[in-house]
Design a protein that fits this description.
Strand 3 (94-95) and strand 4 (102-103) form a beta hairpin. The protein has 180 residues and is α+β, with helices and mostly antiparallel strands. The chain has helices spanning 10-25, 63-74, 88-91, 166-179; strands at 34-38, 77-79, 94-95, 102-103, 106-111, 118-124, 135-140. Strands 1-5-2 form a 3-stranded antiparallel beta sheet, covered by helices on one side. Strands 3-4 form a two-stranded antiparallel ribbon. A two-stranded antiparallel ribbon has the order 6-7. It has one domain: Deoxyribonuclease I, Chain A. Helices cover 26% and strands 17% of the residues.
Length: 180
Amino acid sequence: MHAPTENNDDIVKSSFYDRLDRVYDTVPKHDAVIIMGDMNTKVSKDTLTPCTGICSLHEISNDNGDRVCHFATSRDLITSSTIFPHKNIHLQTWISPDGLTAKQTDHVKTSRRHAVDLTDTRSQRGVNCDSDHFMMRIKYRPKISILFKHQYTRHLRFDISKFQDGTCVKKYHNSIKKIS
């Protein structure tokens, strides 16, 4: 499934993002989320938007770009395809059939919490997938932490200096005899 194009009406676009919201809500809260695909968006280099970086191919967002940014901001996602600096040729994800127009319409969204796990995002121009889109490649290196479910109790230490006193030694021997 891919996002509706810019030419679709608002009802189709709203239903797509409502469906995306419902699917996103089914994902467990602490799972790493990666949403990638043909979003049919132009996302700007706007530094005021918390979901995008400054390495976008476009200066201005289109309506789909605004919708994606709104979705990403409400879900605390970032657009990793606009964070990593690359040459423009590696930011382009779609090229027109005449070969003159190239755009960055495919994006990778990931949860901000797991953003440090992504080390790179770019398009792969050499891969022939019989499409006018280039394949997207991400380098993902998860950081795994070990959670301790049980708190460890602090062990009491014995005060062996009391065994230097003869009366304590007698009390200790008597208590052992009572147990056995």
